[in-house]
Amino acid sequence: MCKKSISLLFNLLLICTFGAQAQSRLLDSLELSQQKLYSSLEEALKAPLKVYRLELVNFGLDFWADNQDTLKHLPPSIGRLVNLQELDISDNYLESLPAEIGKLKNLQILKVSSNQLKSLPPEIGKLTHLRHLDAEGNNLRTLPAGFGKLGSLITINLNHNTLEEFPPTDSLPNLVTLLLHSNEIGALPPSFGRLAKLQVLELWDNQLKRLPEELGQLIKLVRLDLNSNQLSALPASLGKLQALTYLNLSLNFLTELPAEICGMGKLRELDLSYNHLAKLPPEIGNFIALTSIDLSHNLLRALPPELGKLKSLQTIDLNINKLTTLPEQIGGLKKLKELVLWQNEITWLPPGLGRLSALETLDLNSNKLQKLPPEIGKLSNLRVLILWGNKLEALPNEIGQLLSLRALDLKGNSLSKIPSSIVHLNKLLLLELANNKISMQDQEKITNLLQQAQVSFE
After folding, report:
1. What is residue 70's predicted lDDT score, i.e. its pLDDT?
2. Which domains does the chain possess?
3. Angstrom distance (rounded) from CA 110 to CA 83
């Protein structure tokens, strides 16, 4: 063989070798972000091996033109971009993806949100390096069988589709974030418990009627949102989610809270609003890290004394229940800043209320209070006190000790007098007294005492 032929063969081998290496090398996030971002498929196909990032978002869209030339079909030639690692074709009118997308072996990021996709091609299962998939806002009803083989996936966003089920998750060991809200999912497979690295799971606005016990195996889960489903009960295994900091179970049909789930030692936010809870278990006092709890729109008639053990609690919403009083132990909530109790049937407040030294907002409107305990004057940090729509006939003199008070709403009561101690409320900016029984003479007196405030009798 002549030297020229040998040299040609050697160069050919070099090209094949380095070409193969170029096609198989994955860039890290920083490297990838530094690559040129192509915005035209035509331009990209002129040098296909050099293209790592391609964005065809709102491709050709002109809001002022009569004919909007938005991308409706992704041509098979996309498969020639063998080094492509980031593809964004969001906000178009795509109804399908070509099978050739399976040739993009190095693809790490695929964004196809806000299209009209009814399905994903089976070939998507060949994208073994895919780490991030965003297909939010399409018409996906099912996922291809190969979807479960995408073992490199870290984040999946399938919000706002019409999915009726999620495939078995045995082969998604690296998944950290799974977003599935606003679909039509009726059940979860037991294999969900094998998502060992999952930290965020959003399933709100689906049709879930039950949860698998295996959900309790997601020991790294930090955020779980299940609001707006059809859950009537919870598995006790949820109590094993010891890393959970946020749990939303609102807008379901829950009638009780299992005692076992009250042991989540890191839970900070709990939303149980709009359910059918008639009572709370004593174990609720075990939520030692809880800072916010929403129990509004339930059927609660009483609160357990153990509620006072929630030493980290800052906000509690109990509006629209059937409470008639509060436990004396509520005074143990030393960090509580906001207490919302409107539209209940409360006739009496315990003296322990005065121990809420951090309280800034107290909303008791639309209850049946006839008097306030003198201990209310100890709420030294109270800024807003809402008492309209009760049956108050008098206020304690201690009301004048609320030196931080900015707004006091007393509309719709049966007050004929206001204690002169209100003159000490130097920071008061608003006093509402409409629909009471205060004489014109006393109205003038009150106005003179509080010249810095806006006082309303109408």
Report:
1. 64
2. 31-154 (3.80.10.10)
3. 14
